[in-house]
Amino acid sequence: MKKIEAVIRPTKLEELKKVLNDMGVRGLTVYNVMGRGLQQEIKHYYRGQEVSIDLFAKVKVEIICPDHWQESIVNGIIATCQTGAIGDGKIFIYPVEEVIRISTGESGNAAL
After folding, report:
1. Phi, psi (5° rounding) for residue 68?
2. Can you spell out the DSSP letters for the chain?
3. pTM value?
4. What is the spatial distance between Cα 38 and Cα 89, in angstroms, rounded to a whole number?
5. 6 has which bridge partners?
6. Quick one: which of 6, 28, 60, 76 has the most CB atoms within 10 Å?
7. What is the pLDDT of residues 23-61, one digit of tens each?
8. Which domain, by its residues, includes 51?
9. Which CATH number covers residue 87?
10. Residue 62 and residue 91: Cα distance in Å, rounded?
């Protein structure tokens, strides 16, 4: 199994949820996060004072999937979230040793 973490633009979340649902991906966890990568800081003025913003609002989506779903999920995330501009986000992939469904005690792929 794999854990796929995608840090994306908040405006792409609803579209990504629909794409994942259409692919049969039901389980996901979503976090509102702040971060920065290659994006440059933005200078704003608030009450006459210059304020630099260097952390940007992002959404982190986590998905645990069987190994054979990894490629199609990653391709779906890229196709949905890629605008070609800096700040589109990143995808991280980790191996998952075990998954256990607490309510039934099922483990492995059955617990997904």
Report:
1. -75, -10
2. -EEEEEEE-GGGHHHHHHHHHHHT----EEEEEEE-SSPPPEEEEETTEEEEE--EEEEEEEEEE-GGGHHHHHHHHHHHH--SSTTSEEEEEEE----B-TTT--BGGGG-
3. 0.86
4. 10
5. 61, 91
6. 6
7. 999 899 999 999 888 777 778 787 888 877 888 999 999
8. 2-111
9. 3.30.70.120
10. 10
